């Protein structure tokens, strides 16, 4: 995609429902980032905004260009520098400013992204704002940017790490935590600095897992829930005789118990749900439809309510805002908190886990065991040129079964007594995504193979 005054520019392959992602510099660069800054300022009518970025080598230049574009539109910019996504959400919420975060934690080298939010860390995406911003950038890239405002806005640097850490510790309700040894893997991104700094204020022995240089792309541990990604963490927990290990990735958190075994994400989600229901009697938890059954079960057992929604960051957050839910969970290990502006924070989830562990005298494995009720497999991608047709055929096949329920909230979900699966289309690629959960491993395997056989028939 040429970026030097093209005759036309189509950013639709890069802009999805809530952010922009693509390769730098061939698909987008500092000039496009500057136009996004000006367009964001114009559409939100912001007199001030906050911007942050991760530690990929191209991130500082992209963030600076965005800030300059907003400043040329007369907007005052607070630059919080290298940060995690939840630090940016904290700054947007605490300062009541729209925010822009330059990050692409799951992308390969040369890939980067931009996530935008309204003041108070409110999601920007499902309304028309992002489409309007994209249209302005496409037009300005061809016909020239608007003239700068007088006076031009300022760009000032601000460190929010101390305030961010204090907020997280207060929200988790850490009163008198017992001394624990915690191994922390925050990857190669800014979390390798912020996570130890936040935990340092607690009576913990923190063992950081060595990481690469700050400028290395954070793709070596793109998915903290993948077993291969936590191998070094699991080994280090055992070697240190630690109480637990934490793999942190912005809004996501994966946990290793004292035996060096990964805590299943559904069990952790259910444990956090139970704790929040206990702290807030009668409260609501929002979960996407690919989340384990153990989450609504935990809510019900503690007198709370569970609300199911479509898969995706924006859908969970919007449903939380609509229902006043105290907690939101997603299948990919994201945890969203009402008192954190409905935003996700893996580190806040970890602090809640530390507080729950402090409430009990036993090890983490014993704390989690009651919630490890089901077996699931990694999300499976099925390439297809006809996702709608394949889904319709599968629906027709299962509609003939009297012992299952079908719903179409997000793709197709088929639910039986001791298993369920969801098949939904990707929003960016020609494929279907399959999630399966069952009471035991044998049932899980048979249901998964049956669905795949029908899809490939």
Write the layout of secondary structure elements.
Layout: E1 19-23, H1 30-44, E2 48-53, H2 59-72, E3 76-82, H3 85-95, E4 99-102, E5 111-117, H4 129-143, E6 155-157, H5 161-171, E7 180-185, H6 191-199, E8 204-208, H7 231-240, E9 244-249, E10 252-256, H8 265-279, E11 284-288, H9 294-301, E12 305-309, H10 313-323, E13 327-329, E14 335-337, E15 343-344, H11 346-358, H12 364-368, E16 375-376, E17 380-383, H13 387-399, E18 405-407, E19 412-415, E20 419-425, E21 431-438, H14 441-456
Parallel strand pairs: 2-3, 2-4, 3-6, 7-8, 7-9, 11-12, 11-13
Antiparallel strand pairs: 1-5, 4-5, 9-10, 13-14, 14-15, 16-21, 17-21, 18-19, 19-20, 20-21
Task: Describe this protein's structure.
This protein is an alpha/beta fold and 457 residues long. The protein is 36% helix and 22% strand. The chain has helices at residues 30-44, 59-72, 85-95, 129-143, 161-171, 191-199, 231-240, 265-279, 294-301, 313-323, 346-358, 364-368, 387-399, 441-456; strands spanning 19-23, 48-53, 76-82, 99-102, 111-117, 155-157, 180-185, 204-208, 244-249, 252-256, 284-288, 305-309, 327-329, 335-337, 343-344, 375-376, 380-383, 405-407, 412-415, 419-425, 431-438. A 6-stranded mixed sheet has the order 1-5-4-2-3-6, sandwiched between helices. Mean pLDDT is 91; it is low at 212-221. Pfam families: PGM_PMM_I, PGM_PMM_II, PGM_PMM_III, PGM_PMM_IV.
Reading off the top of the CATH hierarchy, the class of the largest domain is best stated as Alpha Beta
Main sheet overview? 6 strands, mixed
Helical fraction: 25-40%
What number of structural domains do the residues give? 4
């Amino acid at each position: 995609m040429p970026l030097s005054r093209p005759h036309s520019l189509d950013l639709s392959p890069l802009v999805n429902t809530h952010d922009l992602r693509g390769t730098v510099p061939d698909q987008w660069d500092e000039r496009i980032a500057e136009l996004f800054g000006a367009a964001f300022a114009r559409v939100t009518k912001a007199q001030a905004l906050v911007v942050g970025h991760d530690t990929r080598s191209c991130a500082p230049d992209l963030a600076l260009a965005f800030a300059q574009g907003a400043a040329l539109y007369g907007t005052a910019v607070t630059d919080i520098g290298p940060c995690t996504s939840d630090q940016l959400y904290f700054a947007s919420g605490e300062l009541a400013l729209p925010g822009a975060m330059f990050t692409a934690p799951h992308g390969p080298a040369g890939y980067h992204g931009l996530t935008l939010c309204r003041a108070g860390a409110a999601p920007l995406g499902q309304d028309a704002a992002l489409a309007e911003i994209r249209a302005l950038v496409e037009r300005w890239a061809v016909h020239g940017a608007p003239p700068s405002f007088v006076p031009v806005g300022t760009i000032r640097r601000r460190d929010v790490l101390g305030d961010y850490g204090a907020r997280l510790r207060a929200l988790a309700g850490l009163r008198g935590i017992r001394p624990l040894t915690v191994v922390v893997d925050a990857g190669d991104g800014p979390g390798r600095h912020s996570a130890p700094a936040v935990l340092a204020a607690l009576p913990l022995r923190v063992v950081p897992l060595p990481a690469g240089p700050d400028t290395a792309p954070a793709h070596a541990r793109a998915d903290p829930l993948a077993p291969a990604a936590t191998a070094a963490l699991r080994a280090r927990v055992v070697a240190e005789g630690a109480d637990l290990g934490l793999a942190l990735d912005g809004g996501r958190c994966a946990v290793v118990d004292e035996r060096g075994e990964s805590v299943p994400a559904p069990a952790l989600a259910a444990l956090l749900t139970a704790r929040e229901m206990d702290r807030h009697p009668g409260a609501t938890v929002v979960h996407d439809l690919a989340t384990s059954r153990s989450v609504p079960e935990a809510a019900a057992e503690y007198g709370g309510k569970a609300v199911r929604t479509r898969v995706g960051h924006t859908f969970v957050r919007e449903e939380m805002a609509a229902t006043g839910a105290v907690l939101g969970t997603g299948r990919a290990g994201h945890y969203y908190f009402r008192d954190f502006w409905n935003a996700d924070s893996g580190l806040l989830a970890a602090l809640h886990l530390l507080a729950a562990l402090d409430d009990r005298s036993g090890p983490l494995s014993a704390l989690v065991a009651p919630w490890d009720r089901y077996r699931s497999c990694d999300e499976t991608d099925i390439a297809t040129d006809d996702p709608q047709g394949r889904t319709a055929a599968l629906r027709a096949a299962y509609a003939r079964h009297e012992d299952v329920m079908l719903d179409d909230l997000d793709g197709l979900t088929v639910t039986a007594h001791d298993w369920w699966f969801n098949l939904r289309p990707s929003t960016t690629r020609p494929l279907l995504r399959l999630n399966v959960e069952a009471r035991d491993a044998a049932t899980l395997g048979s249901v998964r193979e049956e669905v795949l056989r029908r899809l490939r028939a």
